[in-house]
Automatic annotation (TrEMBL), chain A:
NCBIfam families, per the entry: PRK13159.1, PRK13254.1-1, PRK13254.1-3, PRK13254.1-5
Function: Heme chaperone required for the biogenesis of c-type cytochromes. Transiently binds heme delivered by CcmC and transfers the heme to apo-cytochromes in a process facilitated by CcmF and CcmH.
Topology, Cytoplasmic side: 1-8
Signal sequence, start to end: none
Binding-site positions, heme: 123, 127
Entry's transmembrane regions: none
Protein name per its UniProtKB record: Cytochrome c-type biogenesis protein CcmE
Keywords attached to this entry: Cell membrane, Cytochrome c-type biogenesis, Heme, Iron, Membrane, Metal-binding, Signal-anchor, Transmembrane, Transmembrane helix
Matching PANTHER family: CYTOCHROME C-TYPE BIOGENESIS PROTEIN CCME HOMOLOG, MITOCHONDRIAL
Family: Belongs to the CcmE/CycJ family.
High-level lineage: Bacteria, Pseudomonadati, Pseudomonadota, Gammaproteobacteria, Lysobacterales
Location of this chain's protein in the cell: Cell membrane; Membrane
Species for this entry: Dyella nitratireducens
Bilayer topology: Single-pass type II membrane protein
TrEMBL record, chain B:
InterPro entries for the chain: Cyt_c_assembly (IPR002541), Cyt_c_biogenesis_CcmC (IPR003557), Cyt_c_biogenesis_CcsA/CcmC (IPR045062)
Organism this protein belongs to: Dyella nitratireducens
Pfam families xref list: Cytochrom_C_asm
Known function: Required for the export of heme to the periplasm for the biogenesis of c-type cytochromes.
Name of this chain's protein: Heme exporter protein C
Primary gene name: ccmC
Parts of the chain that traverse the membrane: 28-48, 60-88, 95-120, 132-151, 163-184, 204-222
Span of domain Cytochrome c assembly protein: 23-188
Family: Belongs to the CcmC/CycZ/HelC family.
Length: 156, 252
């Protein structure tokens, strides 16, 4: 490689390295405070107190959805591994909204309740036909029964 | 010592040789892209079963995901070509980098539009400022910036080298787009197709997706061939090989 190209190569590589380091530092810094949402346990730990409005993310607890008879008001509980948060929302919910579905609600705290102004449904990256899902659910349920039976045996 | 590969590449980087090579490659690439694209569309829209939770709405994945990958892939190609152009000043590398930008911008635009359409149906919103969506928008702006910078110079080679610099710096956005769903809490779901570990998509759905991935790659090859050929002709205008082609055209 001739000296001119060598020099160009060094300059380009040096600038590229500098940009990568800068980007890595920015990404690292943003990781602390660029979270799209807070989970119920994070909110209860007081991590969201500096925000007037924020996004709350988690799973809709089973049997917690209560719809009002005369308005679009709906209340439900959002849970994560270590916390639960009652949510109140007035409006139309996305099609995917249902029990045990991940949702992201934007809104503010009112006492211990979260008043949402927007509720979005989050879906996972799994795609499969309905028949396969049903078969897997059945197999899963069967496994639970087997495990329970095994435990019984052990106790005996 | 097999030194025919570097020799062949060196030969290929000469404009008249590449002009002929791209001319032969282009019809094959476009034909295969069309056939595979139609097969993938039929497989995705007709043969693949509906999804267990998203029903038929998930079928936009067969456009959205291949286009998103092309947006990243083409930027990668553009980055490598820009690097070669900056260090070795090879004319063909400059042309390839600059011809890739509009194709990549188009794929990124399609990704954002199809993502929006999918988002309103599934999430309940057209747009949200989460890390994945924002970094993908930055990718589109990088493409547009490269195109604008290239065209803002009177001298095209000067413009190509300046824009190549921006293209090269923008490469840092690629891992950010890819890992945004891992590094941050996002509304966008994680990656379905994983190179390491099992993919979370049924085999009946994955084959149309991968077929479309190949089809979009071939479309890019075909589109790049015709763009590079046109750019080479206008850059080398006045040279013997171009004059010969022009004379043959007139006689033919």
């Amino acid at each position: 490689m001739n000296p001119t190209r060598q020099r160009r190569l060094t300059i380009v590589l040096a600038i590229l390295a500098a940009v990568i380091v800068a980007a890595a530092l920015v990404v690292y810094a943003l990781q602390q405070n660029m979270n799209y949402l807070f989970t119920p346990s994070q909110v209860q730990a007081g991590e969201a107190t500096s925000y007037k409005t924020f996004r709350l993310g988690g799973m809709v607890k089973a049997d917690s959805i209560q719809r009002s008879n005369d308005s679009l008001k709906v209340t439900f509980t959002v849970v994560d591994a270590g916390g639960a948060m009652p949510v109140e929302y007035t409006g139309i919910l996305p099609d995917l909204f249902r029990e045990n579905q991940s949702v992201i609600a934007t809104g503010h705290m009112d006492g211990a309740r979260f008043i949402a102004t927007e509720v979005l449904a989050k879906h996972d990256e799994t795609y499969m036909p309905k028949e396969l899902k049903d078969a897997m659910a059945k197999a899963h349920a069967g496994k639970h029964i087997d495990e329970a039976a095994n435990q019984d045996k052990q106790q005996l | 010592m097999a030194n025919w590969i570097p020799l062949w590449l060196h030969k290929l980087s000469s404009p008249p040789v590449f002009y002929r090579f791209a001319g032969t490659l282009r019809p094959w690439a476009i034909a295969l892209a069309l056939v595979l694209g139609l097969v993938a569309l039929y497989g995705g829209l007709v043969l693949a079963p509906p999804d267990y939770q998203q029903g038929d709405d998930y079928r936009i994945i067969f456009i959205h995901v291949p286009c998103a990958w092309m947006g990243l892939f083409i930027y990668g190609v553009m980055g490598v070509a820009a690097f070669i152009a900056l260090v070795w000043r090879i004319k063909l590398a400059e042309v390839v980098a600059m011809a890739s930008a509009p194709i990549g911008a188009a794929f990124t635009f399609i990704t954002l539009v199809t993502g929006s359409l999918w988002g309103i149906r599934m999430w309940g919103t057209w747009w949200t400022w989460d890390a994945r969506l924002t970094s993908e928008l930055v990718l589109l702006f990088l493409y547009l910036g490269v195109i604008a910078l290239y065209h803002s110079f009177e001298d095209r080679r000067q413009g190509a080298r300046t824009a190549a610099f921006l293209a090269l710096i923008g490469v840092v956005n690629l891992p950010i787009v890819h890992f945004s769903v891992v590094w941050w809490n996002t509304l966008h779901q994680g990656s379905t197709i994983k190179l390491l570990g099992p993919s979370t998509i049924a085999p009946s759905m994955v084959w149309p997706l991968l077929t479309m991935v190949v089809a979009t790659k071939l479309y890019y090859v075909a589109s790049l061939c015709s763009r590079v050929r046109a750019d080479l002709l206008s850059l080398e205008a006045g040279k013997d090989w171009v004059r010969q082609i022009a004379e043959n055209e007139v006689r033919g």
